[in-house]
């Protein structure tokens, strides 16, 4: 099945958005099916696009995590490029003074602590303050739209890796999420269903450390390792699929294999990150190999890995303050510090319809 994205539909039918000067919040993932940048396609369709706004990693994606490219001129369109990363309130409002309508077209990966949805949220709130329409050009959730995993973000733990109470793996498209979080017009997908296993669309790595669809699927779980003293694989060719530290020995992988976790196989590996944690040091650990994407449970798998590490390496394994923000509360950190089983923190398996607002329409006519 081939999916038609919101960007493709708008390029084919410019009347889908309100009149006025358009500002596009986008990056290198904002492309049409033939990989033409959305900005180029919209201008070719005659839409009055006047400015571009980039998120974390920048419009072109050259910046690593926690950075952006700044401002300049887009060589493809000649339009000015403004940097939204970590801007909020009046500073963000001022960026949008030269446009009448804000469009959003960035590929998300369905995980709460991936920052693109919070760029959307901040810009959506700015549009509301300014009384300007906010339009999301929807894209598929590459993790599908059936399964929800992990806890809701708890009050007091809001940050740029979680602004609002949504599950860790939320199961929504960016358009559906925008409707949950505020007021937005959505140029909807065509041909996508909640159970879609493929889209027919090309995979564009949505950030420098998200190279493959497998990386995206493990990320809701192994992204939690950013809140530990283990390397989460940044600085390798398989970030988030490769986890390790100098103190991990030959006991780790057999312990993981003994658990019989669904959809994943574990292989002992050695690596030397070229940047981030343990850069230039020899590291021992594990690579996760997905053998059944439908059966794999990324959050449960990561919690089991954390439990085993806590038991095998009590003098070396350590947690970082960022873990609370990633998890969305302090319950995971406290469970590990107490030697409790973190898997017991997982809520029962659920679906998007179980946590979304009852008045907001989801794809396939699903409400609740």
Automatic annotation (TrEMBL):
This is DUF1343 domain-containing protein. InterPro entries: NamZ, NamZ_C, NamZ_N. It comes from the Bacteria. Residues 23-213 form the Peptidoglycan beta-N-acetylmuramidase NamZ N-terminal domain. Residues 217-346 form the Peptidoglycan beta-N-acetylmuramidase NamZ C-terminal domain. The lineage of its organism: Bacteria, Bacillati, Actinomycetota, Actinomycetes, Propionibacteriales. Pfam families: NamZ_C (PF20732), NamZ_N (PF07075).
């Amino acid at each position: 099945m081939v999916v038609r994205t919101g960007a493709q539909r708008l390029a084919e039918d410019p009347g889908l958005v309100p009149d006025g000067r358009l500002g596009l919040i986008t990056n290198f993932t904002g492309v049409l099916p033939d990989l033409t940048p959305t900005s180029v396609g919209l201008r070719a369709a005659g839409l009055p696009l006047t400015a571009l706004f980039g998120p974390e990693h920048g419009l072109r994606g050259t910046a690593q995590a926690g950075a952006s490219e700044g401002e300049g001129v887009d060589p493809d369109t000649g339009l000015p490029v403004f940097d939204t990363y970590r801007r909020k309130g009046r500073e963000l409002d001022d960026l949008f003074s030269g446009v009448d309508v804000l469009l959003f077209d960035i590929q998300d990966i369905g995980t709460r602590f991936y920052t693109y949805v919070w760029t959307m949220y901040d810009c959506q709130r700015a549009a509301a303050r300014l009384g300007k329409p906010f339009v999301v050009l929807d894209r598929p959730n590459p993790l599908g739209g059936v399964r929800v995993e992990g806890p809701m973000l708890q009050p007091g733990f809001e940050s740029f890796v979680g602004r609002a109470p949504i599950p860790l793996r939320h199961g929504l498209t960016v358009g559906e999420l925008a409707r949950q979080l505020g007021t937005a017009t959505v140029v909807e997908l065509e041909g996508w269903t909640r159970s879609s296993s493929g889209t027919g669309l090309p995979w564009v790595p949505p950030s420098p450390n998200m190279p493959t669809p497998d990386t995206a699927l493990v990320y809701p779980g192994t992204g939690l390792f950013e809140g530990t003293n283990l390397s989460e694989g940044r600085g390798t060719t398989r970030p988030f699929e490769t986890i390790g530290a100098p103190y991990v020995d030959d006991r780790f992988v057999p312990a993981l294999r003994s658990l019989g976790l669904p959809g994943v196989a574990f292989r002992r590996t050695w690596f030397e990150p070229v940047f981030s944690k343990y850069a230039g040091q020899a590291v021992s650990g594990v690579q996760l190999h997905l053998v059944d994407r439908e059966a794999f449970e990324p959050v449960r798998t990561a919690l089991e890995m954390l439990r085993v590490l806590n038991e095998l390496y009590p003098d070396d394994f350590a947690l970082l303050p960022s873990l609370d923000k990633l998890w969305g509360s302090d319950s995971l950190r406290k469970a590990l510090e107490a030697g409790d089983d973190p898997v017991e923190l997982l809520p029962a398996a659920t679906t998007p319809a179980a946590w979304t607002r009852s008045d907001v329409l989801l794809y396939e006519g699903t409400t609740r």
